[in-house]
Amino acid sequence: MAVTDFRDSLKLNKLPVRGLVPETSSSPPSAPVEGQLWTDSVNHVLKFWNLTVWKNPLDRSDHTGTQVSSTISDLAPTVKGYRLDEFTAPSAAVSFNGQRATNGADPTAASDLATKSYVDNARAGIAGVKDPVRAVSAVNVNLSSLPASVGGVTLANGDSFLTTAQTTGTQNGIYTYSSTGGAATRRTDSDATGEILDGTMVAVAEGTDAGSQYIQTATPSGAPGTWTQTWVKFSTGGQTYTADGNGIELSGTTFSLELADATLTKSATGLTVGLVSVAKGGTGATTAAGARGALGTVGKYTANVGALTGGTSLNIAHNLNTLDVLEPSLREISSGELVAARFVVVDANTVSVTTAASYAVDTFRITVVG
Q1: pLDDT, tens digit, for every residue of 225-262?
Q2: Could you give the percent of the chain with pLDDT greater than 90?
Q3: 214 and 315 housed in the same domain
Q4: Which of 26, 28, 22 lies closest to 42, judged by CA?
Q5: Residue 318, domain extent
Q6: End-to-end CA distance of the chain
Q7: Which of 148, 205, 229, 261 is buried deepest, with most CB atoms within 10 A?
Q8: How far apart are alpha carbons 249 and 257 in whole angstroms?
Q9: Same domain, yes or no: 196 and 121
Q10: Is residue 83 part of a domain?
């Protein structure tokens, strides 16, 4: 009869097995097969063979799938217990989804976020610079029954305005308009102690003082309405310029010269006068000869004469640009005596002189009129 070796596999399908103890040793079994169990007696861990290594079935690296948060008993208290400063800093913009960040501290570094109270206090500390008013009144305003217009501006409900010349001085200040016939109230940033200072400034947007700035110069002594505010115009709006039409042009904000005719030119270096006609007091010429011709006047040429050879003519250039010359004169330089000579008009700019005898250079001086 064949004997069954129980070391071979047994079919235990649906057969309860109790007290099964996997092989236990300090080193893994040799030549294991897939699924073989072994208890590591050193680490006291049950492992199985996966054809590659002995695996602990509880290793987290082998866990797959999704575990819902509701099955983790301490998830919410653990996550909620972390402070924001313990998380990694964001590397992109963070949206508050339209919500406010509250209960913040005043900033200390240049990149710190600022609280509303810090900004409000900072604004109040800049010599009391206020939001602009729409208009300013330099005459008394009935603050109990408001007119439709203040300082040349028809105001609407919610507009702000400045009064500087109230009959009752304690009424001076910054107000909010309600309606025609309605009452004015001091603007909420200008109705409490410390909100109007000696040096508080406000700009005017519209009306007769549009573009101006006013400064309050009186020393405060309580809430507005209990002391007289003194508002002085600190600066005025931009100046308006008008060209007078007499040689000055204004296009937008640029002035330029008007040129009467082509005799005038302008460039980056300035105004240049060209040829001016005789009719306008000029000569219309670019040379002295041309100017004399245009004006009908004569010119004169005088110079020392070069060496003369008896009986030979010497040309002398006078450049008077005319054939109509008077007979030239030849004067001996040493004696002042006028000497007879033969003169010939060669062309409009040249005459020739001939003497009977020879003379050295600079003996004579010639004068030509033409």
Answers
A1: 999 999 999 876 656 667 777 778 777 677 788 887 77
A2: 55
A3: no
A4: 26
A5: 300-369
A6: 167
A7: 229
A8: 6
A9: yes
A10: no
Which residue has better confidence, 76 or 301?
Answer: 301
DSSP 262-297: TTEEEETTEEEE----GGGTS-S-SSHHHHHHHHT-
The whole-angstrom separation of Cα 103 and Cα 20 is: 64
Asked if the structure places residue 167 within a domain, the reply is yes
Instruction: Provide the 10 A C-beta neighbour count for residue 151.
Output: 23
Residue 289 confidence (pLDDT):
67
Q: How many structural domains does the chain have? A: 3
- Report the phi/psi class of residue 153: left, alpha or beta, with left for phi > 0 and alpha for psi in -120 to 50: beta
What is the model's pTM?
A: 0.38
Sheet of strand 300-304, all strands in order from the earlier edge strand to the far edge: 300-304, 364-369, 329-332, 338-339
Give the lowest-confidence range in 143-157, 162-176, 189-203: 189-203
Q: Locate tokens 């020739």: which residue?
A: 352
Specify whether the CB–CB gap between 223 and 208 falls below 8 A.
no
